[in-house]
Amino acid sequence: MQVTKEGKAIAANVSGRGMTQPRWPAVLATLALGGIYSALPAPLLITGRRELVLLVVIALLVPTIITHKRGNHFLNQVFGFVLDSVVTIALIWSLELLLAAVLRHEITPPQLLKSAAVLWIANVLVFASWYWHLDGGGPHERSLTPGHSDGAFLFPQMSMNPEAKIAAGEHLWEPNFIDYLFLAFNTSTAFSPTDVPVLSRWAKIMMMTQSLISLLVIALLAGRAVNIL
User: Fold this and answer.
1) Axis-axis angle for helices 201-215, 177-190 (nearest 10)
2) Residue 22 dihedral angles phi and psi, to the nearest 5°
3) For residues 198 and 122, what is the distance between their CA atoms, to the nearest angstrom?
4) What does the pLDDT read at residue 229?
5) What does pLDDT average to over the chain?
């Protein structure tokens, strides 16, 4: 019982001030999204400008970082949702352009393979960002309560009993961006959850959408390019 009391004391001490979740992985992933869109072939670029998505991403990232530093969590969340919406629209738009180019035979097999790889990576990063922003009310809300115990996803640490969590040093555990990136990667690879069951209906809908996009990119586009080669 001594370990349990010590764990409760630590949790009580942290609960009063919250734990700040690192934001730099999410910032890097968002910048990477803007960069990889510019790697698409010219026929798949939005409005034909290679740098457009990256410029929009940077323009939205600046106020997102500023509002976070100033503690304006409501505006920070709004800018985060707008940023996620922009990269999601870019993903769907580019996928539609790719499908149209395939049907009209306007894209070469090497371009098709490159485009499929870029859109698959973008799919993982886009939905990882959505999961990170939405689960448990977002990163700020999750940081207010030490020990993540309620959310749209049942991470393995959440199913451990309190004594085991304290013994393993996981009593203050909460998911960060890397955990959601891992979840999104598994969803795009296996087309289903792996070690993280889905609890919320909105999360189930989003994971079905992500799996559908991944299936379309891998099975239809990349598979056709290999057959042509």
Assistant:
1) 50
2) -65, 135
3) 22
4) 58
5) 81
The residue with greater pLDDT, 219 or 5, is: 219
The span from the CA of 203 to the CA of 150, in Å, is 14
Q: Sort 195 into a burial class: Cβ within 10 Å, 0-12 / 13-18 / 19+.
A: exposed
AA identity, residue 177: F
How many whole angstroms separate alpha carbon 77 and alpha carbon 140?
Answer: 9
Question: Would you put residue 18 in left (φ > 0), alpha (ψ -120 to 50) or beta?
Answer: left
Q: Cα separations (Å) of 21 from 75, 147, 203, 220?
A: 17, 12, 21, 38
The backbone region for 94, taken as left when phi is positive above 0, alpha when psi lies in -120 to 50, beta otherwise, is alpha
Q: Rounded to whole angstroms, how far apart are CA atoms 73 and 60?
A: 15
d(CA 88, CA 94): 10
Q: For residue 172, give both structure tokens.
A: 């203050």
Structure tokens that stand for 183 in this block: 């979840």
Asked if residues 221 and 41 have their Cβ atoms less than 8 Å apart, the reply is no
Structure tokens at 96: 């539609």
Express each pLDDT in 44-79 by its tens digit. 777 667 788 889 999 999 999 999 999 899 999 999
Q: 38 is written with which tokens?
A: 């510019």
Helix ranges (DSSP H) in 1-108 = 2-15, 24-37, 52-69, 73-103
Tokens linked to 202? 């909105």
Q: Are 100 and 212 in contact (CB under 8 A)?
A: no
Q: Facing residues of 153 across strands?
A: 198
